[in-house]
Write a structure and sequence with these properties.
This protein is of the alpha/beta class and 247 residues long. The chain is 26% helix and 30% strand. Strands 5-4-3-2-1-14-15 form a seven-stranded mixed β-sheet. The chain has a six-stranded mixed β-sheet with strand order 6-7-8-9-12-13, covered by helices on one side. The model has no long low-confidence stretch (mean pLDDT 96).
Length: 247
């Protein structure tokens, strides 16, 4: 199975524009025979907590139907980030589109203190069976909490999909933390981060993938858009900056 992280800059608060940009990245990943494409935290709106209540929607929003069509046509799994509605308020969610199956929603369970004023937490872990693997999504802050990775490992997960929006300091922490998680639980770890302005910080990219042994297999820069991918069978990995694609 080939799993892929997309690194991109979101257009602040503009779901329609971001859908269009996501489609281009999905097509790029599909052209490289990807089976899974993971986008950053709140990728369809940008990481903008102050806008979340107005932008919150749900997995059945017709603006998202294009991703189901792409999943069906390209036979791949797509995870996109956006705020979703709940009775207790907006949640930070990942909507997952699978080929010819119903779409799924995973909502961040462990919120950072700065997020508590804007979001409510999810209460159920999602584990997805695909391509002979068990994939467990984690969203940003919770992916740096060792107990979250331990819990999904107990559920049989062998692939950790971290969808994040991180500035430079947090990216440095992630690059120190994820290798140890990979080694401890024998899990592939894939991180999809964004680049560019987000809320009150600038996202620092460096989307990457680590093998089950904790080896950094491929990494993007801190400012280029692009994709990073690993073949779980062969171990072959690559990072493709968007500028290289355009060139």
């Amino acid at each position: 199975m080939r799993i892929c992280a997309a690194q991109l800059a979101a257009v602040r608060g503009d779901i329609a524009a971001n859908v269009t940009r996501h489609i281009a990245f999905v097509e790029l990943a599909a052209s490289r025979s990807a089976d899974v494409v993971l986008f950053p935290e709140l990728s369809l709106t940008g990481y903008e907590p102050t806008l979340a209540r107005d932008l919150a929607t749900d997995a059945d929003d017709p603006r998202l139907d294009v991703f189901q069509a792409l999943a069906d046509a390209r036979r791949l799994l797509i995870g996109v980030g956006l705020p979703t509605r709940s009775k207790s308020g907006p949640q930070i969610s990942l909507v997952v589109f699978r080929p010819l199956e119903r779409r799924l929603t995973y909502s961040k369970q462990r919120l950072h203190a700065d997020e508590l004023s804007w979001f409510s937490s999810g209460d159920e872990q999602l584990v997805i069976d695909a391509g002979g693997h068990r994939l467990a999504p984690a969203i940003c802050y919770e992916s740096l909490q060792p107990e979250h990775a331990a819990a999904v490992a107990d559920l049989g997960a062998d692939t950790y999909l971290a969808s994040v929006a991180k500035p430079h300091r947090s990216v440095e922490m992630a690059h120190q933390h994820y290798p140890s998680i990979a080694r401890r639980h024998s899990m592939i770890v894939l991180m999809a981060n964004c680049v560019g302005p987000c809320d009150d910080f600038v996202a620092a990219g460096r989307s990457a993938v680590w093998t089950e042994q904790g080896r950094l297999a491929a990494e993007l820069s801190d400012r280029d858009e692009g994709i990073v991918m690993i073949d779980t069978t062969t171990g072959e990995a690559l990072a493709i900056p968007w500028v290289a694609v355009e060139g």
